Amino acid sequence: xxxxxxxxxxxxxxxxxxxxxxxxxxxxxxxxxxxxxxxxxxxxxxxxxxxxxxxxxxxxxxxxxxxxxxxxxxxxxxxxxxxxxxxxxxxxxxxxxxxxxxxxxxxxxxxxxxxxxxxxxxxxxxxxxxxxxxxxxxxxxxxxxxxxxxxxxxxxxxxxxxxxxxxxxxxxxxxxxxxxxxxxxxxxxxxxxxxxxxxxxxxxxxxxxxxxxxxxxxxxxxxxxxxxxxxxxxxxxxxx
Length: 240
Description:
Elements: H1 2-21, E1 25-35, E2 40-52, E3 55-71, E4 74-87, E5 93-113, E6 116-129, E7 132-147, E8 157-167, E9 174-186, E10 191-202, E11 212-223, H2 226-229
Parallel strand pairs: 1-11
Antiparallel strand pairs: 1-2, 2-3, 3-4, 4-5, 5-6, 6-7, 7-8, 8-9, 9-10, 10-11
């Protein structure tokens, strides 16, 4: 309970600081994962974003994906979703900047260096947008550091640092850089909260705008049977 309260004290402290400047947006995620077996899982996620602190809502997405663990260090993912961007200056102001359906295969390579987990994620995106079909390619390098007193086979806290680059196959080729620093707290093997900061630099892009965001997420896992319940807690980078 003390740990839970600490997370929310940090959140409200950040809220107070933001309230004085109103320069930070919010990046809210709800993720549910279903573990079918040791190698096969599914997840669904919804996101809601705003350009000011819980004001000027301009973006939402919902998506689903299937994950397959080819090896302890290799994961394959195939996902699809709807991504909706509204113009800035209000709450879901129309006309939309972008109405998009997206299909994305993904490869994640995982390794450990001491207590630090390293992820390299490669994602291709096939995008049907308001301006026609587009391709995009993403590369994310992430570091994860679980810490705290281990209980029931996992550590309750986790620091996550990642940087992601976005490219296209047409000029100007480079689209975006996304830097994220978050902290996670595991309420149990099934549930965790995430709180942090995301900075985004966009170059000639209209599918989602904004620079600095407070990141708030809730993640919940479902296990099909006792064999999947005995799986290790997934203390790797979260998808987004």
